[in-house]
Design brief:
Length: about 70
């Protein structure tokens, strides 16, 4: 698989995980911190076995990277 297709697939996985977490969080009246949101998103991302559990980037404690683009 070429690098562009890998990036596209990874972005799709990240976007799908983000959508699932956003739907959950926005349907709740309970406030959530950015830190807790990040943990929920990472937990959802880790359910997909096609990507590394911590991604390609080794973020600082409690940090994360997001692949974005048009």
């Amino acid at each position: 698989m070429n690098k562009l297709l890998i990036c596209k697939k990874t972005r799709k996985i990240a976007a799908s995980a983000l959508l699932k977490v956003l739907e959950e969080v926005l349907s709740s009246k309970k406030p959530i911190s950015e830190f807790e949101f990040g943990k929920k998103w990472l937990k959802e991302l880790r359910k997909n076995k096609d990507i590394f559990p911590n991604g390609w980037y080794d973020p600082p404690p409690s940090g994360m990277a997001i692949i974005f683009g048009k």
